[in-house]
């Protein structure tokens, strides 16, 4: 006899829209493993991951099958790596990252995060080593995801840090030139990383959380598209107020199911349940593109006039529905616009309706930032730093999280196509205004916060 929980997803008892769980993240506390001996530290990290996450993938698979909801990625996040790495050199940090990569492969997770340097207020010796090691780490590992929190509304941002990051993004792409610079796609520069969640690029701040915590991120694209299509079958001229109500209902259902799945996985693993992230996020799977969803609302091409208003409609509905559906819903629902994961966005860049300036503007109406943006391989570090500064400045002023993942593609120019394989798909390299003058970034100093 199926439980009442599972009957919520039974197509014979309820009409449920298509839904995908984007990620389930197991966040592990490793603060007690601090050791000045590199071998003991690496061994402790490896054993902690293998022991606590050994059954994680199997449990996710079982719960996914029982609920009939696909789980696209399983991630582990280890905290607080920046403090554990204090006192070690660059070569040691690379060995720590290789240990994480090996443990992730052993437990068969898709990604492992926690390689995080938090430098919005200043840069410690340990954080500097994490940043300096980025090109080696991301070119020599498969599953490690790295992040640097470089700005916050309270403290502003350091141009010295951004100058360093511009060089490291470029060097990381060059170190993985044989794979189209894919190493840079695994490096996120962040602003206003929320300690209460949700996971951003796999990063889960550990302060104030338990030793093992499950976080769930669900994409509402499929559910919302289904709701809009059903309404338009009934009334092709339905106004945006009616559609907004349908979008809220779909996002509410997505949040409820995500919470049920997260609680079930946490219970089976003996972990705490953390938070759910209900966001608008595309995947490479058919029917899961934000551009196509906006076309259903009447936007001719993503980036054309009306795009920002349509995204605001979706963002507002998701925030309201998520908060109503669950007390565990994160406060930072967002619209994710990763160029490399949305075929509709790629088509818009080819058609000329979408450029980097449009994406920067959309950060003010729910966009999370410039995500997985392929840029010309000959872009200068100073231009990369300036793009980071522009996007982080928007986040500082709006007091919202932001993500910037720039991918300089070695040997490619603006307008040329590039393929990153099954997980990221194909894209067109975007044109980026670039000038030789790097005076602004090289002035250094700190841009104050926005209070």
UniProtKB/TrEMBL annotation:
Q: What is this protein called?
A: DUF711 family protein
Q: Which InterPro entries match?
A: UPF0210
Pfam families named in the record: DUF711 (PF05167)
Question: PANTHER family annotated for this entry?
Answer: UPF0210 PROTEIN MJ1665, UPF0210 PROTEIN SPR0218
């Amino acid at each position: 006899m199926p439980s009442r929980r599972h009957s919520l997803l039974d197509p014979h008892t309820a009409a449920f829209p298509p839904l995908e769980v984007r990620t389930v993240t197991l966040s592990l506390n490793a603060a007690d493993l601090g050791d000045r001996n590199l071998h003991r530290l690496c061994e402790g990290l490896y054993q902690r991951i293998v022991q606590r996450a050994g059954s994680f993938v199997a449990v996710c698979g079982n719960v996914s099958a029982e609920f009939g909801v696909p789980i696209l990625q399983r991630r582990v996040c280890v905290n607080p790596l920046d403090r554990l790495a204090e006192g070690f050199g660059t070569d040691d940090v690379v060995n720590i990252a290789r240990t994480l990569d090996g443990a992730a492969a052993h437990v068969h997770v898709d990604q492992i995060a926690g390689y995080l340097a938090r430098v919005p207020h200043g840069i410690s010796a340990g954080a500097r080593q994490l940043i300096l090691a980025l090109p080696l780490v991301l070119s020599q590992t498969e599953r490690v995801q790295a992040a640097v929190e470089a700005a916050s509304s309270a403290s502003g941002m350091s141009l010295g840090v951004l100058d360093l990051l511009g060089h490291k993004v470029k060097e990381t792409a060059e170190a993985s030139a044989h794979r189209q610079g894919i190493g840079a796609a695994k490096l996120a520069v962040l602003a206003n990383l929320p300690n209460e969640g949700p996971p951003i690029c796999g990063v889960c701040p550990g302060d104030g959380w338990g030793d093992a915590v499950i976080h769930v991120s669900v994409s509402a694209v499929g559910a919302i598209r289904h709701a809009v299509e059903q309404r338009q079958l009934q009334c092709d001229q339905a106004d945006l107020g009616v559609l907004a109500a349908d979008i809220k209902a779909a996002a509410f259902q997505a949040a409820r199911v995500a919470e049920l799945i997260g609680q079930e996985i946490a219970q089976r693993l003996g972990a705490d349940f953390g938070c759910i992230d209900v966001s608008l996020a595309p995947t490479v799977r058919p029917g899961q593109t934000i551009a196509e969803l906006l076309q259903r609302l009447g936007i001719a091409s993503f980036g054309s006039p009306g795009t920002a208003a349509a995204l605001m409609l979706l963002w507002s509905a998701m925030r309201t529905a998520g908060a109503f559906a669950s007390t565990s819903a994160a406060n930072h629902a967002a619209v994710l616009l990763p160029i490399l994961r949305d075929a509709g966005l790629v088509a818009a860049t080819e058609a000329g309706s979408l450029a980097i300036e449009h994406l920067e503007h959309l950060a003010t109406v729910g966009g999370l930032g410039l995500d997985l943006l392929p840029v010309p391989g000959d872009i200068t570090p100073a231009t990369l730093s300036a793009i980071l500064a522009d996007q982080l400045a928007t986040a500082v002023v709006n007091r919202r999280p932001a993500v910037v993942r720039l991918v300089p593609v070695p040997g490619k120019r603006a307008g040329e196509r590039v393929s990153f394989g099954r997980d990221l798909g194909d894209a067109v390299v975007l044109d980026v205004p670039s000038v030789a003058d790097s005076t602004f970034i090289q002035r250094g100093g700190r841009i104050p916060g926005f209070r």
